[in-house]
Amino acid sequence: xxxxxxxxxxxxxxxxxxxxxxxxxxxxxxxxxxxxxxxxxxxxxxxxxxxxxxxxxxxxxxxxxxxxxxxxxxxxxxxxxxxxxxxxxxxxxxxxxxxxxxxxxxxxxxxxxxxxxxxxxxxxxxxxxxxxxxxxxxxxxxxxxxxxxxxxxxxxxxxxxxxxxxxxxxxxxxxxxxxxxxxxxxxxxxxxxxxxxxxxxxxxxxxxxxxxxxxxxxxxxxxxxxxxxxxxxxxxxxxxxxxxxxxxxxxxxxxxxxxxxxxxxxxxxxxxxxxxxxxxxxxxxxxxxxxxxxxxxxxxxxxxxxxxxxxxxxxxxxxxxxxxxxxxxxxxxxxxxxxxxxxxxxxxxxxxxxxxxxxxxxxxxxxxxxxxxxxxxxxxxxxxxxxxxxxxxxxxxxxxxxxxxxxxxxxxxxxxxxxxxxxxxxxxxxxxxxxxxxxxxxxxxxxxxxxxxxxxxxxxxxxxxxxxxxxxxxxxxxxxxxxxxxxxxxxxxxxxxxxxxxxxxxxxxxxxxxxxxxxxxxxxxxxxxxxxxxxxxxxxxxxxxxxxxxxxxxxxxxxxxxxxxxxxxxxxxxxxxxxxxxxxxxxxxxxxxxxxxxxxxxxxxxxxxxxxxxxxxxxx
Length: 620
What we know:
Elements: H1 12-34, H2 42-77, H3 83-110, H4 118-147, H5 158-194, H6 202-213, H7 215-226, H8 269-279, E1 283-284, H9 285-292, H10 318-329, E2 331-332, E3 335-336, H11 350-353, E4 357-360, H12 367-378, H13 385-392, H14 396-405, E5 411-414, H15 415-418, H16 438-446, H17 477-487, E6 492-496, H18 507-518, E7 523-526, H19 541-547, H20 559-567, H21 572-584, H22 599-618
Parallel strand pairs: 4-5, 4-6, 6-7
Antiparallel strand pairs: 1-5, 2-3
Helix pairs in contact: 1-2, 1-7, 2-3, 2-4, 2-5, 2-22, 3-4, 4-5, 5-6, 5-7, 5-22, 8-17, 9-12, 9-14, 12-13, 18-21, 19-22
Keywords: Membrane, Transmembrane, Transmembrane helix
Transmembrane segments: 42-66, 91-109, 121-144, 173-194
């Protein structure tokens, strides 16, 4: 997916830089104090007052950095976690400390012994403030970790992987935040206890030097951990080691012909011929656009015969176009061909018609979006929303046709055009389900034009129909892909994701995605917009659906197809893990879509998404 992940520090590094600069300035004040001459001089008194202010603001600035980082977690998690309490503690202590600073300055400048004990209050307040902040951080981050409990999520799902990843980062963040607080509190409490002694001691001098020189390096080390330099940037899904494509492994899950037990499909010459025939079909982007401009009542303006007058680019699905245009246009006498075989170039040599890219899409989505995704891929764009807008505009397809003709000519394998619909679905809609059921509603919608509501006319051709076995053209994606990988070294797989992400719920599409992934075929995903899964999005419904997806819940137009696909999967759990890797893994389709900008923010958002997915999976 051609999208870069932008990183920003959300103020963490700039805030730390200011803290380090202030520490350096404080150390220089100490040197000036040593060189300022008499202890009752004006310069000495000014330096003493400045040092007191510095010792006040530095620890509270450190608390301010904790507050800022906790605010980032709150922003990502969407709930208050105590940053407001840290702010109140910080400003309350600062108010008291400024009064104490005035008293200490008066005591040190005018040698007022009676006020000598005020310094104990100074250090005690700083110690208590750091301890209170540490407790707030621990309680707040514990809430986030509890919400992202991996045990509430399905094993192997991306949501569970993200929950584990976010908890690891948040625990690391918790240590990095509370460690300086605890160390500071210990040092300040020790200094407060030694203040009871009127005579300066070696231990007191060491502690005084430590709180100035130890805490800045400690803050720097913790900053490295907060920025997560030692953690992976994305959660990863663990897969079992896959064998090569030729071995009897997950890559052959979809190869077996369920209707012919024990028969190896590539041994069958009929199966072989069907695979070879399918692999030799394709169409260019220009041919796809020329077909597109013929759709609708104004299609005749292009000079060719208009087809499918009911076509509406914003309502008609690919299923509508297949039934209303592709099947009628691909009928040849009393039989029929794949639409790709009806094109003028279909008569040239097989090598000239081999596809460069195989396309996965769902027939329930807009046909406009399928065409837009293919055109966007040909134009090397990383989303297809703007192309869809141009296609739907008058004359837009013609302008896009001129643009793609200037690009290198690529050929695409699209099942709607490259599978012979006359050898399968042209004369029926499958067996009628039980009226009133959800499956009946989907079946009934599939046999009606989305725009007009009319039932599609059936094709009266006499072509024999095959829904399984060696002559079926609808179950050979994996075999065809293996053959094409041998013939086309640069073969790619384009995944045209629809607006509602229904592609990931279609059984055949899911099977294609996993097979392509396991075969190491380069995959490209095109979304309507790259913001569809933006990490800042408030609506987590799509994430919940994808991150807990299982093949058991996928659907197919024919229930027989769904059951056949499930029957070919020996281990559904491992298949689901592979499916999650296909979508979210390190080389998955949506590997960058849910990456956070700042890693603190990313960890909190991951925890929030995991909690949302757990709530969705548990139901009401």
